[in-house]
Every structure is written in structure tokens, then in C-alpha cells.
Design a protein that fits this description.
Shape: globular
Radius of gyration: 28 Å
Helix content: 10-25%
Strand content: 35-45%
Largest sheet: 11 strands, mixed
Length: 482
């Protein structure tokens, strides 16, 4: 029998609204399909952090067995009796974010002069930008000095269900949420700030920031057991999934807990699942993983992310006649004129004033994304665009949402400013964009690269896009109705 590979990643159990079948939603979801009824489903993320609950796998009758097994392994006497068992959900704040690290390095370059047989050295200053996933769990209540916060990271491997009465197991109590989610973010930022001291900056100031933090409240099951051993009382805390002992002491732990009513967690946000349909005519939308859709029936534009600054039009670059073009999406973030003048921003070129264009397709390599951002930002003022009222099959899905793209735009902007002045103005990190737009630009393959089909000046490697670059047959265009 082939063993089932353990699933890695934050995923949530939910029900299909069409047929009631069980679903497993991974952390990078937008849409999914029900394997039972084939309905295309849309995932609704709440504005406030959602609450989830993890189901216990250990039964009450097994608690004493797990304690005796632990004692036997440590060559200690077994329990005489099990006096009390209490089942509790410990709350953890789970934070998933992007970690930005700006590091100032000096690189010494040795030059050798053959004529004089001498060596000279010069110091070159370089600003390194690194982006990486960052996740941390912080105790939201309970006994953090007893149960380490790191134990909450096991939620990466187990399914969860939205916090509700029907998903709470019999006999389990929830602890009071004593740490607000705003304080959890503050604690995470404080921990990230300590990274600046791990390696000394060789010039300027090292910078570490959390971008786009996503919070969830995870209620994890534990058993609190009090046993009698040779006339003495002893307390144990057991992991509700594995039965492993995570803490033991001679004092009673149960009396230290602050139990909350179920309403406290229920008041937090709750992830929802609905049919992925057009809000105008009810037609089922495509199951592509995209933030932007156009209804095949009524051509209504649907954007799955709210943004007050969004210009609800799709722009398309004009002037290409290549048959094998593919249209790649980009977000344009425009800065207010007064801020542009303050920071002297000419991102990507002297003609570009306050416009940063970020790829709306997935590029895992930040350096490659940054280079393409500079190139397309420098060229955007020379591109002729008009509102597109047709979306063809050779238009790529918008795989990067506005929030994530905005974070990357801030990173690119910070790198641009820090690279010139070696300082990060405090106001720059919280700078708001004036307008956000979406446009598609045509690219065609040449050798190992994709080249823009209008200017022939913007290029990037085929491997970065992760898409097929063969000619794609076009279908009957759809007319957009705004």
C-alpha cells in the first residue's frame, strides 16, 4: 500500500454551498471547484481576522494511557488514578506575511595593474533586497509561559474548520482572547526588528519590515489532566492531536484558566464559500485562478478584491500585429504629485513621474520582478493604451492581487529611494497611492526571452512567466460592459 503523503500548508475544511460536499481550501485560494458537483466556487475572505478550530484526535479514555506511556519512557512510576480531565481550546494568532529585508553591504574589489605590478582596492556599496515568506504564531490567551507559542505552528499540517457552534467538540471550552490582533502585529513587527541586529550594517541602516500580514485566530485542542501518583497530585498538558505531553508540574493548572463564552471568537471574521457567478446575470464564471473576470454572457467586469483607488477599466496596449502575442497583465500604481516631488521619484526613467508598474502575473524571483518593474515603468509613458472591450484567450489571468502588488510596489519604491540616499524616509513606508489601474501589454517569444511587441525594449526570460509561449488560437471576443 502506497503511503499517503502528508499535506503541507495552511488549509481549511469547508462545505460546498451547492451540494454540501466537504472541501479542503488551501491558503493561496481564490476559486476552486467542487469534486462532487463540479460547481465553481469563490472564497470570501473577511475584513477582520477569521477564527478557526482544530478538531482533537485524542479521546478522553486515552488520556491516562498517554500519561503512563510518557512516564514509562522516562523511567518514572505510573499513575495511581486519573482525578480530573479538562478539555480546552488554546487560541493562537497565526500571522502569514512577506518579510522585506534591506541590507547594506560593502564589497571590496581588487584591481591589479600589470604595468606597475601593484594592486589597488576599492569599496563598492550595495543595497541587497530580500523578500521571503514569514509566518509566526503568538499566544492570544491562556498560559503562554506553559505552552510555547511555537506549538501553534502545527496548524500548517492539519485541517481546520471555521469557528462555530457546530464545529466545537463536546466538552471543550475556549479560552479568553486576551491579546488583540493589533497587539499581535505589533509583537511580530518587534520580533522582525530584532533581525536588524543579527548582522551589522556596513553602511546606512538595515531595514526589516512585514508586508501584507494576514491574521487568523486558531483554536488548538489540549487536555489538562490531574493525576495521583503515590499520594501526590501532578498536572499534565496533552496535545489534543497526538497525545504528546507538552508540559507537566506539581501545581493545578485548571484554576489559572480564563474561560470565554463562544461568542467572543464567533464575533471575529468568518471565511465564506459561495458560487462563483456573475453578480449581474448569474452566469458561472471561469474557474481560472484570477482576480479579474469577464462574464461570457453579459460581459460584466468582476474584480475579486476591493480597492477604493481602483480605476474600474481594463486598458490594453495598442500597436502590435504579431500573431503569437500573449497579453501580460500589469498593475499601475500612481503616486500623488506632491509626494512624487518630495521624494524626487522618477521610477524607471526620467520621463516617468510617479508611476510604478508591477507584474500582475506570478514571478517568484524578486530580483527579476524588480528588473521587469523598472523596465515596464520606464516604458509605460511611451505606450499607447485604450480601454479594452474584449478579452481574448491570449490574455493571461491576473494572478497577483492589488494588495500584494501594492506591497511589491512599495518594496520597489523603497529600494529605489534607499539605493540613492542610503536612508528610508519614515513617511515612505506608509505612502498611499492615488490611483490603481490594470493594463495588458503584448509580448512575443524571441529565443529564450519574451519581448514587448510595441517598443521592442522590454524583455524578460520565458522561464520567469511560467506560461506557454506558443501561439494561442483566439476565440470570439467578449465586449466589456462597465
Amino acid at each position: 500500500m502506497i503511503p499517503v503523503k502528508a499535506k503541507r500548508g495552511f488549509y481549511i475544511a469547508a462545505s460546498c454551498p451547492a451540494c454540501g460536499a466537504e472541501l479542503e481550501l488551501e491558503s493561496d485560494f481564490l476559486t476552486t471547484s467542487c469534486s462532487s458537483c463540479n460547481s465553481v466556487l469563490r472564497i470570501l475572505t473577511p475584513a477582520t481576522p477569521p477564527a478557526y478550530v482544530v478538531g482533537a484526535k485524542v479521546f478522553d479514555k486515552d488520556v491516562r494511557f498517554h500519561i503512563d506511556h510518557h512516564l514509562k519512557g522516562n523511567a518514572e512510576p505510573l499513575t495511581d488514578s486519573l482525578d480530573r480531565v479538562r478539555k480546552v481550546y488554546f487560541p493562537y494568532w497565526k500571522i502569514d506575511a512577506i518579510l522585506l529585508r534591506l541590507r547594506h553591504r560593502k564589497k571590496t574589489r581588487i584591481n591589479y595593474d600589470e604595468e606597475t605590478n601593484t594592486e589597488t582596492s576599492t569599496d563598492q556599496r550595495k543595497v541587497e533586497t530580500m523578500l521571503s515568506p514569514y509566518d509566526i504564531t503568538i499566544a492570544a490567551g491562556g498560559l503562554p509561559e506553559i505552552i510555547p507559542c511555537s506549538l501553534g505552528e502545527r496548524t500548517e499540517y492539519v485541517p481546520m474548520k471555521p469557528y462555530s457552534e457546530e464545529h466545537l467538540q463536546s466538552g471543550f471550552e475556549s479560552l479568553n482572547i486576551e491579546i488583540p490582533w493589533q497587539d499581535a502585529i505589533t509583537s511580530a513587527n518587534r520580533a522582525v526588528g530584532q533581525l536588524n541586529h543579527v548582522s551589522a550594517d556596513e553602511f546606512g541602516v538595515n531595514i526589516s519590515l512585514l508586508l501584507r500580514p494576514v491574521l487568523s485566530l486558531i483554536n488548538f485542542p489540549y487536555f489538562l489532566a490531574e493525576v495521583n501518583m503515590r499520594g501526590k497530585q501532578r498536572s499534565y498538558v496533552l496535545d489534543g492531536l497526538t497525545g504528546r505531553i507538552v508540559y507537566d508540574c506539581n501545581d493545578s493548572i485548571s484554576d489559572q484558566l480564563h474561560i470565554a463564552d463562544h461568542q467572543q471568537s464567533a464575533e471575529l471574521g468568518r471565511l465564506g464559500v459561495e458560487l462563483h457567478r456573475c453578480s449581474n446575470c448569474g452566469e458561472q464564471l471561469p474557474d481560472t485562478r484570477s482576480y479579474v473576470y469577464v462574464c461570457r454572457n453579459c460581459q460584466q467586469l468582476t474584480v475579486l478584491e476591493d480597492c477604493p483607488q481602483l480605476n474600474c477599466r481594463i486598458l490594453s496596449v495598442q500597436g502590435s500585429a504579431n500573431a503569437d502575442d500573449q497579453y501580460f497583465p500589469f498593475w499601475i500604481f500612481r503616486l500623488p504629485a506632491e509626494q512624487t516631488n518630495v521624494f524626487r521619484i522618477r521610477f524607471g526613467g526620467s520621463e516617468n513621474v510617479g508611476a510604478i508598474c508591477v507584474p500582475a502575473f506570478r514571478i517568484k524571483n524578486f530580483e527579476a520582478m524588480y528588473r521587469l518593474t523598472r523596465r515596464i515603468s520606464g516604458a509605460v509613458s511611451e505606450l499607447s493604451m485604450r480601454e479594452s472591450r474584449e478579452l481574448k484567450e491570449n490574455y493571461l489571468p491576473v494572478a497577483v492581487g492589488i494588495t500584494e502588488a501594492g506591497a511589491l510596489a512599495h518594496v520597489a519604491l523603497m529600494r529605489e529611494v534607499v539605493g540613492k540616499s542610503q536612508e528610508l524616509p519614515r513617511a515612505l513606508a506608509d505612502l498611499l497611492f492615488e490611483e490603481v489601474s490594470l493594463f495588458f501589454a503584448p509580448f512575443h517569444p524571441e529565443s529564450y526571452f519574451l519581448v514587448d511587441s510595441c517598443l521592442g525594449a522590454v524583455t524578460f526570460e520565458k522561464s520567469l512567466a511560467g506560461v506557454q509561449t506558443k501561439p494561442v488560437p483566439t476565440s470570439t471576443p467578449s465586449t466589456l460592459r462597465m
